Amino acid sequence: MVANTSVTRVAGVLKRRIIIDIAAGFTTGCIAAFSWWHFYHQKRLHFREQWYVDYAKAKGAAADGSLDMEADSAGESLRQALLDIGGPKTLAIDSGLTAVVSALCPYSSLKDCGVSDVVTLTRETIRGNIVYVASGSPESVKLVCDNLQKSIANDGERILLVRPRTSPLVDLILDQHGLTAEVKVYDWPAFFMPGPVLSMGLSPTMPVNELVWQTAVALNALQAASNGPFSRVTGHGSAAKRVSELLQDLQGEHQASAVANGGFEYYFGSAFVGCDVDYLLLIDRQVDWVGALVFQLTYQGLLDEIYGVSPGQIVNGPDGKVKLEGELFNMIRDLNFGMVGQRLNSLARQLQTAYDKRHDAKSIDEIREFVAKLGDLQSTQIQLKQHTALAEAIMSYVQGNEFTACLEFQQSLVENELGTSEAVSQLQELIYRKIPVARAARLLCLVCLCRSGLKEKQLHTLYNDILRTYGYEHLQTLHDLENRGLLFTTTQTSYAQIARSFQLSNQNEKVSKVYAGYTPLSVRLVQAAVMAVRGDPMLLGEYFDNVQKSDHPKEAKLRKILLRNSGSHDKQVIMVMVIGGVTYAEAAAMRAAVPSDKELIVASTSVITGDRLVKTELSPAD
């Protein structure tokens, strides 16, 4: 590009106002010329087109991994805080954040930063240098204060990392305890844990206002790490609506800051609306409690139901810790468990065939080629052995009388095959057989949801059965489940009508195979979003649809050039954010529901199971 003398002179005056951070290869001359063009945009259309092409190529390379980059950034910020304290130090982690830290910073990398010990944050005294990792909740910060007051007599430095960011409330609590001068406080912007589901790792029982705020802040941070705002935001439910509104407010604050700084982002940022994520779908968990409570039947879902999946691994498997990663696991994680054995068999035969090829290697080159593949074959063999052992353990579990009885009862409920009286009677029988209390509460919630509530007498009868069988300490549990809308008397909302309208029971669909014939409502909402179908008035909570438009309508043509030349936009990218928790099986069904010409990212405030959802209300003894 050749700029004439007058253009160069004007650009030199204006270039101080331009703030831009893009990939190498995009020259200062291009930036200056584009700034000049913004103010004199009546000329040189061919120059504008070429600038967008160059920008797309530069940003495309960085945009592909924006989600991974955010996770890497969170891990790096923790390591940097550890390095800021010289010598050995102790990392004290709030129990609710242990999984987040282990996902973002393996213990080996913590040791490299001088961490001598990793402990769960309690009120017990800790000696030496301490780095606290806590959430911004009052309970978590007060626990830090209690520990600080006991540890303050010991020499050492103290740092507090608040996830996702500090607040005036944190400062107030520290000030009330007289500890403001004793600890350095920093934000720790660790929002999403990487994995098949991008989880924020929040508690499902977190107050709704806090859940909404944390979700909006996380999504806003994701926009900042990407190439621009989500081009379209739709959703179902009151919490989803509030997240959308708050997200717009946060985006407005961000833009106002850019205006004040006179930066590039204000002048040109909206031209890149939707450059990474085209479509954000927000789903309030309350719109579909049933999808969270039904038993998961995928391989990863059953692992979570039986053993509990920490980020990227199970800790208490039949053979101890097993990492859930690699190509083999990715091939079977979303399969209905009935298909896993067949797939593992096929993989075992393929592996044996690959090993047998060593007998056919005659030349030096052929032997060298086999040896080069040997490491991968051995790694696959180890993974195959681990997952075969897990599959056998799962098979024993699902063939047990208790699980079979509960699953058959559930399937009859969701397929509307049981009348209310019959459903109550069968649930009573399961309670008398003393199935685990969490499972009994889970099935009771399903009965209420699938039968559109129970008569007051029926509900109280089941309450009495649970209290007599498992103990009266669970009275508060039942009360809490009522408050969350999981237990209730007869309501006007008809589950049977919703099930018919959305065809939740359809044996002939690919997506229904995930749940052996059932499709959660949350998955149907994803399908409806993909097909651009508006919300249904029968659903709990309102539907909204916000399309974010560029502030520069004349740049529509140039935006098309940007998208066409961006390697990250071969497919339309849709992100689903479930506020209140999602299961692995739901995520698998959502991915199966999206056509191959689109890419789906599933995110949530937490990964849950039906048992965990109700266990959060149970007493610690259970």
From TrEMBL:
<dbReference type="InterPro" id="IPR036045">
    <property type="entry name" value="Sec1-like_sf"/>
</dbReference>
<dbReference type="InterPro" id="IPR043154">
    <property type="entry name" value="Sec-1-like_dom1"/>
</dbReference>
<dbReference type="Pfam" id="PF00995">
    <property type="entry name" value="Sec1"/>
</dbReference>
<keyword id="KW-1133">Transmembrane helix</keyword>
<comment type="similarity">
    <text>Belongs to the STXBP/unc-18/SEC1 family.</text>
</comment>
<keyword id="KW-0812">Transmembrane</keyword>
<keyword id="KW-0472">Membrane</keyword>
<dbReference type="InterPro" id="IPR043127">
    <property type="entry name" value="Sec-1-like_dom3a"/>
</dbReference>
<feature type="transmembrane region" description="Helical">
    <location>
        <begin position="18"/>
        <end position="39"/>
    </location>
</feature>
<dbReference type="GO" id="GO:0016192">
    <property type="term" value="P:vesicle-mediated transport"/>
</dbReference>
<dbReference type="InterPro" id="IPR027482">
    <property type="entry name" value="Sec1-like_dom2"/>
</dbReference>
<dbReference type="InterPro" id="IPR043155">
    <property type="entry name" value="VPS33_dom3b"/>
</dbReference>
<protein>
    <submittedName>
        <fullName>Vacuolar protein-sorting-associated protein 33</fullName>
    </submittedName>
</protein>
<dbReference type="InterPro" id="IPR001619">
    <property type="entry name" value="Sec1-like"/>
</dbReference>
